[in-house]
Every structure is written in C-alpha cells, then in structure tokens.
Amino acid sequence: xxxxxxxxxxxxxxxxxxxxxxxxxxxxxxxxxxxxxxxxxxxxxxxxxxxxxxxxxxxxxxxxxxxxxxxxxxxxxxxxxxxxxxxxxxxxxxxxxxxxxxxxxxxxxxxxxxxxxxxxxxxxxxxxxxxxxxxxxxxxxxxxxxxxxxxxxxxxxxxxxxxxxxxxxxxxxxxxxxxxxxxxxxxxxxxxxxxxxxxxxxxxxxxxxxxxxxxxxxxxxxxxxxxxxxxxxxxxxxxxxxxxxxxxxxxxxxxxxxxxxxxxxxxxxxxxxxxxxxxxxxxxxxxxxxxxxxxxxxxxxxxxxxxxxxxxxxxxxxxxxxxxxxxxxxxxxxxxxxxxxxxxxxxxxxxxxxxxxxxxxxxxxxxxxxxxxxxxxxxxxxxxxxx
Length: 387
Prior knowledge:
The protein is an alpha/beta fold. It has helices at residues 11-24, 36-45, 62-72, 87-95, 108-133, 146-158, 175-184, 206-211, 228-231, 247-259, 285-290, 296-302, 319-334, 343-351, 357-371, 378-384; strands spanning 3-7, 29-33, 50-54, 78-82, 100-103, 165-168, 193-197, 212-213, 225-226, 236-240, 261-262, 271-272, 276-281, 305-308, 340-341, 375-376. This is Sigma-54 dependent transcriptional regulator. Keywords: ATP-binding, Nucleotide-binding, Phosphoprotein.
C-alpha cells in the first residue's frame, strides 16, 4: 500500500491534496507535515513511497529538505509544489533530484499523473535494488565462517560505490569470485565486466592488451584495435595478478586511474574512459615495492579498499558447505544424481592441508564422485584424496 507524505505549511492546501489523493485511490496512505523540519523528522523515522513537498516553508524550506533527504534516503521520489514565483527554484530542485514539480493551484490531472509515475518509478528502483542483491549463482561465495562473513559485509558496503578494490590472497582462494560479486552488486552490473590476467600476457603485449593500438604501431598491428579499458567503459575492469605487470604498463595504468584517460599504443590522441578498477594479486605488494618491482603510487591508487581472501585452511568450518555446493554443481554438469558424503569423510577432508585451496577441494570432490561409491566414505577419501 503506497505511503505518501504531504509537506505543506498551508493547512487548506494539505487538505485539498489529501482529498484528491484519497479520491484517486483508497489504497493510498496519506500523512501530513506542516513544515520542512517536521517532514524531515517523519522521513527519518518512517518509510514513504512518495513525498509532495512545498518549496517555501518556515524552519526548513523544500530545497533544504530535498538535499537532506537525498543523503539519507535517495530512493524516495519528491514532487515539489511551487507558487508562480518559485518556478526557477522548482527547476533547481529537479537538478537536485526531484522527480517533478507542480504549480499552485494544482491541476487535478497533472497531479494524479505525476503521483502515479513517481510511484511507478519508486517501485522500479526497489525492484532493481533487490535484483542487485541477488548475486548470480555462478559467482556465489559459499561459506559462513567469520572471515567469509567479514568479506561479505565489506562487499555490501563497497559494491554500490566506485571505490577501487585490491583483493589479496593465495592462489585458488576465490579472488575472482570477490571481483565478480563486487561488479554484480554494483550500479555497473548491466555494463561489461572485463577480466585481464596480467600474468598470462607477455610483457611486450600487455600495454596493447590494456590500452589498444593503432595500425602500424608495431609489426603485427595490421589494424586499429581497442584495448580492455575501452571495452570496459561504464563497467568494471578486473586486473588479475596485477603484481606481474611490467613497470612500463604500471605507469600507464596509473595515468589511466589519475586522469580517466587512455592512449592507444602508437597514438597521440587521448580517449576518455569511465571504468571501475578492481585488482587482485597473490603477491605481497609491499615487498614488491621495496624491491623495485611495483610502483608505490599505483599501489595506493589501487588499494582504496583492501580485501584479504583467507586460505581454505583458515576457514575449515566452510568445507562441509563447499563440498555440498560442489557435489550439487557437478551433478548438474554431469546430469547425474547427487552423491552424499558421510560425516567421517567430511571430517577427514577438514583435517587435510589444502595448499591449493578452494580450487584443489573442487578437484578432489569431483575425483571422489567419479571414483568413489554411491556414498563417499572415509575409506574413499583415504584412497582417492590422499596427498
């Protein structure tokens, strides 16, 4: 049931607006506030689907109220009510995020259409936020241990922002999953997620891969080619194993982060890009900096938010959940019935030293499903998962 707050210092206008809305729909819940300060207090303490707000009011005017509410509850649509002399101010409120404005005395049809449209928009915003909270199962981070819950909490706070994130941790721990999760829960989720494995690209080609090149820039450059930064425009670029990037490429990445500009190899023209950068590494970048292999200024640009992904040995309590997740996934991939692991089998897996982390566990689970019995036993684990 839509809840609408009318903020207006003239009681007669409040009554008229309330009556119009009540006659339009008996599902509207109408509340009133006699000035901006009272309206702000109500908004802070309750949830509203729409606010109809006068511009000129005592204590706090409509512009001040709009600015205050946009900081705490930006999803609430505001429809401003303006006198003839307030039109310039009304237009200013549109720039500040108001949904629309209506002149006094309000035109009945205009008012009702605006209210319907504003409520529709609010519903779409809420649905969109709910969808963003549902991360694709392909990139689900499984676990309920304290380190994983900590990471999930960081992602919830950081994903909606454009803050750069540096993800650290050993190989096979799921750093790529964290990067995907950050993207999928962000406002950029509908735009590209471009992944670059910096360790897999030869140092002489990394600049061309990241920034593109123009025809003739080098022997094999037979035509112009856009780089990964351009491909990720409006989206996210994930620089995996960033610690393996050459110093020359690091300098260009630093410039891209500082100026939001890239330059193709062999070109003189700058290209503006709007890209969120997430990086990951299994190296100790502080050591790399001390030994001259990584730029300190680039480190500080990348590490606005640091996320350390724990090894599997640091989150052994998650192994039962991970085994269950992998057995479901493997059964779906192979089109077979899901096998069960005995309690003793799980307990033994929790005692192993997982040097290869999640990746190794996944391989072991698949091996046990293929080679083990109808129920994976402790003896199956000893036979097929031994180190």
